[in-house]
């Protein structure tokens, strides 16, 4: 995150912003791309370049070659199946933002997209690029974790799927092998009879989240929470499912006391250390407030859907 801050501060003008020398390769098929990345040690994939180019300019990344995947056919499609949305590796944030089918079938994904950076960045940056970059405060990784999504990785050895819970290892660290290309991200579609809520606080519109909480919820006939999924980003070294909080609220009617207990359960999952944006203590306070808003809003939406 500091990378972006530095780019905006004119007093750091003395920092040399020239990328290291690299080869630039443009495979025309996924098979060719898999061969090229396998045969080129130190090569990196470039998609939208919105995170990688700043990293190159600050010499935080020294790839031997950049493999541009934008000319590979079929990676730019959004496929909407009965139970999941499959986002190809060169689908940009703005493609998801403008896709009304996603607004209808996966409203929380659509809502979260509005918090991803600014429109010039959304016009180039990709959803899969964001997932591979794996910033611990990024929105699309959070939605993938929330919905029990997964990615498909392709290499010369074949394809494999990796569950979101196993993919994100640490801030900007994933379980992708060096020779793998992430071909697509799969976002399971939430229950249409349920409610959702996405709550984020950032210092300025378009910044990464200081903290964000996302919630999906269904109610039973008596108004008790039947099923709930809750996840957070910006609060830990990676996007996390908040299972201990889910256990506290499931089966309840979400009284004030239930919400207080959920906030208490959340506190131990807020592990990000103090940084330039917030202290750990403030993040705990903030995450608690966001959780409370998120639970209440998700319940309200769940109630409305069951009445309709
Ligand atoms: C000022 C600014 C503000 C931003 N704010 C936010 C924000 O609020 N929320 C947010 O989520 N993001 C934010 N971003 C990041 C933005 O969303 C990026 O678009 C995204 O993180 C990376 O997508 P990209 O397509 O540009 O990837 P690139 O920059 O091209 O690549 C990023 C990394 O992913 C790897 N990669 C990309 N695609 C693949 C693939 N298919 N297989 C394997 N590896 C791959 C690259 O090798 C690289 O390591 C911000 C960026 C900037 C510059």
Q: Secondary-structure element order, as H and E?
A: HEHEHEEEHHHHHHEEHEEEEEEEHHH
Overall geometry: globular
Give the name of the CATH superfamily of the largest domain: CO dehydrogenase flavoprotein, C-terminal domain
What percent of residues are in strands?
15-25%
| CATH architecture designation of the largest domain | 2-Layer Sandwich
Q: State the secondary-structure class.
A: alpha+beta
**Low confidence ranges:** 1-12
What's the CATH class of the largest domain, please? Alpha Beta
Domains, number: 3
Radius of gyration: 20 Å
Identify the strand order in the major beta sheet: 4-5-10-6-7
Helix percent band:
25-40%
Q: What's the number of extended β-strand segments? A: 14
Mean pLDDT: 93
Bound molecules: flavin-adenine dinucleotide
Q: Characterize the main sheet.
A: 5 strands, antiparallel
CATH topology of the largest domain: Enolase-like, domain 1
How many helices in DSSP terms?
13
End-to-end Cα distance, whole Å, is 43 Å
What do you see in this structure?
With 308 residues, this protein is α+β, with helices and mostly antiparallel strands. The protein has 3 domains: 2-68, Uridine Diphospho-n-acetylenolpyruvylglucosamine Reductase, domain 2; 78-188, 2-Layer Sandwich (Uridine Diphospho-n-acetylenolpyruvylglucosamine Reductase, domain 3); 195-307, CO dehydrogenase flavoprotein, C-terminal domain (Enolase-like, domain 1, 2-Layer Sandwich). It is 36% helix and 23% strand. The chain is built from 13 helices and 14 strands. It has helices at residues 2-8, 30-39, 52-57, 93-98, 100-105, 107-113, 119-122, 127-133, 139-146, 164-167, 243-249, 256-267, 280-307, and strands spanning 23-25, 43-46, 65-68, 78-80, 84-88, 150-155, 158-163, 168-170, 173-174, 181-188, 195-201, 211-219, 225-233, 240-241. The strands form 4 sheets. The protein has a 5-stranded antiparallel beta sheet with strand order 4-5-10-6-7. Strands 11-12-13-14 form a 4-stranded antiparallel beta sheet. Helix 11 (243-249) packs antiparallel against helix 12 (256-267). It starts with a helix and ends with a helix. The model is unreliable at 1-12 (pLDDT under 50). The structure holds flavin-adenine dinucleotide. Flavin-adenine dinucleotide binds next to strand 2, helix 3, helix 8, helix 9 and strand 10.
């Amino acid at each position: 995150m500091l990378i972006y801050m530095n780019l905006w501060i004119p007093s750091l003008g003395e920092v040399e912003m020239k990328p290291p020398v690299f080869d630039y390769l443009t495979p025309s098929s996924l098979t060719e791309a898999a061969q090229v990345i396998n045969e080129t040690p130190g090569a990196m994939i470039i998609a939208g370049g919105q995170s990688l180019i700043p990293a190159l300019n600050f010499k935080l990344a020294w790839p031997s070659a950049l493999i541009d995947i934008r000319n590979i056919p079929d990676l730019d499609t959004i496929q909407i199946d009965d139970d999941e949305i499959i986002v190809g590796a060169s689908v940009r944030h703005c493609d998801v933002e403008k896709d009304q089918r996603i607004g209808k079938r996966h409203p929380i994904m659509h809502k979260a997209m509005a918090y991803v950076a600014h429109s010039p960045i959304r016009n180039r940056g990709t959803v899969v690029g964001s997932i591979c970059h794996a910033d611990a405060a990024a929105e699309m990784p959070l939605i993938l974790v929330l919905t029990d999504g997964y990615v498909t990785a392709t290499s010369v050895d074949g394809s494999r799927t990796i569950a979101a819970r196993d993919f994100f290892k640490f801030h900007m660290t994933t379980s992708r092998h060096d020779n793998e290309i992430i071909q697509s991200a799969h976002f399971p579609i939430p229950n249409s009879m349920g409610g959702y809520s996405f709550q984020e606080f950032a210092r300025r519109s378009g910044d990464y989240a200081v903290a964000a909480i996302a919630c999906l919820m269904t109610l039973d006939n008596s108004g008790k929470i039947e099923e709930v999924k809750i996840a957070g980003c910006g609060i830990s070294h990676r996007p996390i499912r908040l299972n201990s909080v889910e256990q506290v609220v499931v089966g309840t009617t979400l009284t004030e006391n239930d919400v207080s207990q959920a906030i208490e359960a959340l506190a131990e999952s807020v592990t990000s250390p103090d940084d330039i944006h917030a202290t750990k203590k403030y993040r705990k306070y903030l995450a608690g407030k966001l959780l409370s808003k998120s639970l209440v809003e998700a319940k309200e939406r769940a109630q409305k859907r069951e009445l309709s």
